[in-house]
Design brief:
The chain has two domains: 339 residues, 3-Layer(aba) Sandwich (Alkaline Phosphatase, subunit A), CATH 3.40.720.10; 87 residues, Arylsulfatase, C-terminal domain. The N terminus and C terminus are likely disordered. The chain is globular, with a radius of gyration of 25 Å. The protein contains twelve helices and 18 strands. The chain has 558 residues and is an alpha/beta fold.
Length: 558
């Protein structure tokens, strides 16, 4: 039929080949749901008291890269879900993978988990600190079945760090930050390569059929939903690999994007089209098995897009890895029959840490008083349009990031050392210090050439020695007018707030690489390498040696 469609040039059949059918009809593609008539609703629905929670996290999706933000990339599923739900248009995440994921799962800022700097590297003996209670652990306490499919990226050097040890009943996906979409291999450096696909705590060799990861993860989600009892609450965390590099997609998803000359943008568009289709299939499966009417679907990107890898944050400034709006302001929405104000836009301040308390309260759970959260319960803000309880966001304080050469305590009015990379939002105001990162605006025409062309970018050359920026984000969301010289009192207020936050920070966890992490030493697989028994044996040996030395010293003294 696809061949016939191409030959005939009929737009309807062309649409069918891309897999976008009506919501209630049967379809294939990126993880076709098992069974017939995906739109059917079983007579017996789920319990109304505790909602099913479906959290979908995209990887590196740019702010502009969704249809309803004006993208040339078609995302009919995301557009429909967002239009029928609540669009989050003042929603913030962190500028990189690990920080956003850690804050989602703990409800805490990076400065309170020790993950202030960069990401967790594959060879680092590091993971989300084990003394942090996680979202799936709290949901399990109130009867939820918890499942994770997709990218973990919160560390794995010891078994206690694995997803199944952090609250998930099951895990299917990757442990690292990136890898090949088909082979699931990843090289961290020359000669340090391994396989990265897991089923719970073991390499998933038997489940690997060379399927594109977006489709493979969707199929796994459908299997979980098919086997679970919809009368019992489920938390499903789907952390897709897409649209993170490497830029790979099945051939048929390029169909509508042949006209995009920039090869990275074209591949990125195909990847996003496949992701959009996959999310449609997840939604249809929720309907088929009776979850949908009592479900809450949350969609979020983990950080801004990377223009050199096809992503677009226009008209925002900056990109992934920076504290400009393009790095931290994300695509996000909530879709649910349980929303009171469906079809609305939420412009209240919301941060990724807010999902932790919000979802626990929706699940009728309890938040321990001794857990010092940075997130807020924002359900009434989203569902009913009320004011957000949040008035500020600490975007981060990174004390070991490359210091700004001209930063000083003097530039920070004796309140703050402006050489340190930091960013904070208080009400309408946003302050950045230190080295905030790549600061260009990258308009759509920058992708018009065969390769990335920075001549189309709007370049900014700051006066020498500048290490403080102040913006009114409400009035100037594109960060074009620096107000730091005009409002020194506001700068001082925000610097004091930074200083207050910094007093609560824990030490940075960023250990050097461990040679024992090499997959060659672990059967060619990336996985836990740290053995607690070995550490105990070494400590016991050292204790024994110390005792022997002490006894010898006593004999010599006698």
């Amino acid at each position: 039929r696809m061949v016939a469609a191409v030959l005939a040039g009929l737009s309807l059949l062309s649409l069918l080949t891309c897999g976008y059918l009506a919501w209630g009809s049967r379809r294939g593609g990126a993880g076709e749901a098992p069974g017939n008539l995906l739109g059917e609703e079983p007579a017996a629905g789920a319990s109304r008291s505790q909602p099913h929670i479906i959290f979908i996290l995209a990887d590196d999706q740019g702010f502009r890269d969704v249809g309803y933000h004006g993208s040339e990339i078609r995302t009919p599923t995301l557009d429909k879900l967002a239009a029928e739900g609540v669009k989050l248009e003042n929603y913030y995440v962190q500028p990189m993978c690990t920080p956003s994921r850690s804050q989602l799962i703990t409800g805490k800022y990076q400065i309170h988990t020790g993950l202030q700097h960069s990401i967790i590297r594959p060879t680092q003996p590091n993971c989300l600190p084990l003394d942090n209670v996680t979202l799936p652990q709290k949901l399990k306490e109130v009867g939820y079945s918890t499942h994770m499919v997709g990218k973990w990226h919160l560390g794995f050097y010891r078994r206690e760090c694995m997803p199944t040890q952090r609250g998930f009943d099951s895990f299917f996906g990757s442990l690292l930050g990136s890898g090949d979409y088909y082979t699931h291999f990843k090289c961290d450096s020359p000669g340090i390569c391994g396989y990265d696909l897991y089923e719970n705590n073991n390499a998933a060799w038997d489940h690997d059929n060379g399927i594109y990861s977006t489709q493979m993860y969707t199929q796994k989600v459908q299997q979980i939903l098919a086997s679970h009892n919809p009368r019992k609450p489920i938390f499903l965390y789907i952390a897709y690999q897409a649209v993170h590099s490497p830029l790979q997609a099945p051939g048929r998803y390029f169909e509508h994007y042949r006209s995009i000359n920039n090869i990275n943008r074209r591949r990125y568009a195909a990847m996003l089209a496949c992701l959009d289709e996959a999310i449609n299939n997840v939604t249809l499966t929720l309907r088929k098995y009776g979850y949908y009417e009592n479900s809450i679907i949350i969609y979020s990107s983990d950080n801004g897009g990377q223009p050199m890898a096809g992503g677009s944050n226009w008209p925002l400034r900056g990109s992934k890895g920076t504290y400009w709006e393009g790095g931290i302001r994300a695509v996000g929405f909530v879709h649910s029959p349980l929303l009171k104000n469906k079809g609305s836009v939420c412009k209240e301040l919301v941060h990724i840490t807010d999902w932790f308390p919000t979802l626990i309260m929706l699940a009728e759970g309890q938040i321990d008083e001794d857990i010092q959260l940075d997130g807020y319960d924002v359900w009434e803000t989203i569902s009913e349009g009320r004011r957000s309880p949040r008035v500020d966001i600490l975007h981060n304080i990174d004390p070991i990031y490359t210091k700004a050469k001209n930063g000083s305590w003097a530039a920070g009015y004796g309140i703050w050392n402006t050489a340190i990379q930091s960013a904070i939002r208080v009400n309408h105001w946003k302050l950045l210090t230190g080295n905030p990162g790549y600061s260009d605006w990258v308009p759509p025409q920058a992708f018009s050439n065969a390769g990335p062309n920075r001549w189309h970018n709007e370049r900014v050359s700051w006066s020498a020695g500048k290490t403080v920026w102040l913006f009114n984000i409400t009035a100037d969301p594109y960060e074009r007018v620096d107000l730091s010289a005009r409002h020194p009192e506001v700068v001082k207020q925000l610097l004091r707030r930074l200083s207050q936050f910094n007093k609560t920070a824990v030490p940075v966890r960023y250990p050097p690489k461990d040679p024992r992490s090499n997959p060659k030493l672990n059967g060619g697989v990336w996985g836990p390498w740290f053995k607690e028994d070995e550490k105990k044996k070494k400590s016991d040996k050292s204790k024994g040696a110390n005792k022997q030395k002490k006894s010898k010293n006593k004999k010599k003294a006698n």
